[in-house]
Design a protein that fits this description.
Layout (H helix, E strand, L loop, with lengths): L14 E2 L2 H9 L8 E5 L7 H4 L5 E6 L2 H8 L6 E5 L8 H6 L4 E6 L5 H9 L5 E9 H8 L9 H7 L2 E9 L4 E2 L6 E8 L10 H11 L7 H4 L6 H5 L14 H13 L1
Parallel strand pairs: 2-3, 2-5, 3-4, 5-6
Antiparallel strand pairs: 1-8, 6-9, 7-9
Helix pairs in contact: 8-11
Length: 261
């Protein structure tokens, strides 16, 4: 690792170094020889080195200029490097260059994990699965159900589109330098047929955001800018309920009502 600079705190860099965990993460993506894989933040290549011999194509998205230079100098036929911020990276060029759905893997910077998840969701119909390392607390929020403290906007938005699993937890000792939080591996698999389809995704996002805007207030209060109590009651939802008690199906019903009035 001597060819690399020290991890950059400003970029939230914590590099994986536990071989057993590295193998488990890559195994969670079930890579086949015909697969196109997108890796977010390859860092020093802990996952990359295992993926390269497995995948037909591997695309790396990296923001650190020194690491971009390192991977660009790595001459390998199935490797493409994109030196860009993942939040500004459009997946269209990868989608258009392959006739298979993309598999996504990465250790997401914890300070931008939610924006990255929402960014990737735009391309869900072109993604086979995602295996991502995130802060354990974020994975718990992603996978939690109604009535729990962790259940919120992130849970509802992602569960409407994906099947979500927490595969396993990762201790701080698996990294250099060790982060101050516990991590976990999540697998997100886009649903082939949505259990709760929405008419307009923008309306769904707006409803969910408003509903959770003040967690201690009721739907009647939080949704007042777009619906009244009678309208909420008309689809069998209690306007005096709090957002954290609603199922994804109830949120989609509210959203679809908004889309039709």
């Amino acid at each position: 690792m001597s060819q690399f600079a020290a991890p950059r705190k400003s970029l939230g860099q914590n590099f994986l170094q536990d071989a057993n965990i590295i193998n488990k993460i890559v195994g969670g993506l079930n890579i086949q020889s015909s697969d196109t894989v997108l890796e977010i933040g390859p860092g020093r290549g802990a996952l990359t080195e295992l993926i390269l011999p497995l995948a037909k194509e591997l695309h790396l998205v990296e923001f650190d200029r020194d690491l971009i230079r390192y991977w660009e100098n790595r001459s390998q036929a199935n490797l493409t490097v994109h030196g860009v911020d993942i939040l500004k990276f459009e997946l269209d060029e990868i989608i258009q260059s392959t006739n298979t759905k993309i598999k996504v893997i990465g250790n997401l910077p914890y300070n931008i994990s939610s924006p990255v998840l929402f960014h990737l969701m735009r391309y869900a119909e072109h993604i086979d699965s995602q295996v991502l390392m995130l802060q354990k607390e974020v994975v718990e929020r992603m996978a939690s159900g109604p009535g729990s403290k962790q259940y919120g906007r992130l849970s509802v938005m992602l569960q409407q589109r994906y099947d979500i699993e927490m595969l396993f937890k990762v201790p701080p000792t698996a990294f250099f330098p060790p982060p101050k939080v516990d991590s976990a591996i999540a697998r997100l698999t886009p649903m082939q047929e949505l259990a709760n389809p929405v008419l307009e995704h923008d309306d769904f996002a707006k409803v969910v955001k408003l509903a959770f805007s003040m967690r201690r207030k009721t739907l009647r209060n939080n949704l007042k800018p777009i619906l009244n109590s009678q309208q909420i009651e008309s689809i069998g939802v209690d306007p005096s309920a709090r957002a954290e008690t609603l199922t994804v199906a109830e949120f989609t019903a509210i959203s679809n009502l908004v889309s039709t009035i």
